[in-house]
Design a protein that fits this description.
The protein contains 5 helices and 4 strands. The protein is α+β, with helices and mostly antiparallel strands and 158 residues long. It has a single domain, classed as Alpha-Beta Plaits (2-Layer Sandwich), CATH 3.30.70. The radius of gyration is 15 Å and the shape is globular. Helix content is 45%, strand content 18%. Strand 2 and strand 3 form a beta hairpin. The chain has a 4-stranded antiparallel sheet with strand order 2-3-1-4, with helices on both faces.
Length: 158
């Protein structure tokens, strides 16, 4: 909870420093209590590289925190276009299922996936809504970690 509050405060500072622009906030989807591993760093860096490849970033920073990877980027893209890009990366990049790319509008409000015609994120292991599986503990922690390791292994080979 503290890290969320700190992240929200940092987002507000960046929005004030770059008025009228769109803010991207990158974190890593990682189940369980351990949020900082070598794998999460690989995933976070891959997300930032993918964003950088797709558009000009006016500002960029990353943090390797005990609470996990955090990346921030500012773009001149309109929020809707930035959200379309974020959703596309989350759905098509080899590690995209593990990216959490939030798009924050210049007014400080997050841009929901529904605003670009996308439905909720799918579960890492099945086709259900990820929130359903998370709430109901549909899959074991070990199953999720195994899938994450598998994705990282495929990514490392590519």
């Amino acid at each position: 909870m503290r890290s969320r509050d700190r992240r929200a405060g940092h987002q507000q500072k960046l929005l004030q420093a770059y008025p009228g622009l769109t803010l991207l906030c990158v974190t890593v989807v990682m189940p369980g209590p351990v949020k900082r591993t070598e794998g999460t760093l690989v995933i976070g860096r891959a997300a930032m590289a993918a964003l950088r490849k797709e558009q000009d970033l006016l500002y960029e920073e990353t943090d390797d925190l005990e609470t996990g990877f955090e990346g921030y980027a500012v773009t001149a893209l309109p929020s809707v276009e930035a959200k379309r890009l974020a959703v596309r990366l989350e759905e098509t990049h080899p590690l995209g299922r593990l990216f959490d790319i939030d798009v924050i509008r210049p007014d400080g409000e997050p841009m929901p996936r529904e605003a670009v015609g996308s439905g909720p994120r799918k579960c890492l292991l099945c086709d259900r809504d990820a929130r359903f599986c998370m709430r109901n503990h549909t899959h074991s922690y070990q199953e999720l970690l195994s899938k994450i390791d598998e994705l990282l292994g495929f990514y490392a080979k590519s």
